[in-house]
UniProtKB/TrEMBL annotation:
Coiled-coil stretches: none
Keywords: DNA integration, DNA recombination, DNA-binding
Protein name: Site-specific DNA recombinase
PANTHER family cross-referenced by the UniProt entry: DNA-INVERTASE FROM LAMBDOID PROPHAGE (PTHR30461), RESOLVASE-RELATED (PTHR30461:SF25)
UniProt xrefs under PROSITE patterns: RECOMBINASES_1, RECOMBINASES_2, RECOMBINASES_3
Amino acid sequence: MLVRAYLRASTKEQDAGRAKADLVDFCQARGLTIAATYEENESGASLHRPQLFRLLEDSHPGDVLLIEQVDRLSRLTEADWDKLKGMIKDKGVRVVALDLPTSHMMMTSDDGFTSRMFDAINSMLLDMLAAIARKDYDDRRRRQAQGIAKAKAEGRMKGRPEDATRNEAIIAMLRSGQSWNTIVGATGASRSTLSRLAQRIKAGETNPNQTAPGA
């Protein structure tokens, strides 16, 4: 049996290796060592997890996939969680999570009956904790969307202020007859911005100090 540690954080700004010392201490307390560590910054709500799949590819039946918390392994939808569970089961890998005490027995029990009992219990608890992790993910996204909608309704979220200096230059270039490709290359402005400014010229409005979302 080899212990393979999996460490995950959602964004590049977060420290995926934050819990590594806790996993090492957990193993040392049981006279075990971590054979390999797989670390990545990917969303737990996605199956795009190169390091997790490399861990499974490297694993052999009976190996342990060690995680700090179940949500490090999954914030997946039910369908995607079922896919991942199937991959783990096919490899014969046992999931052990620091926040799931019943799973700790999977690292020491060699008795066939006891192993099957704990495997059944842990499978049920993993499903429950994975569902809770997904609900937490969905709840946070919903609250975030509600907050953004409220801020917009109250006028606290507006479009970016227009780059007046740049747009004055674009208007001058448009009036001088320069091509859009030339203007885009020179200013970095989008073609939609050029279109809006061209319409402004056509309408006789050349004040670049108005706020235009997306300018």
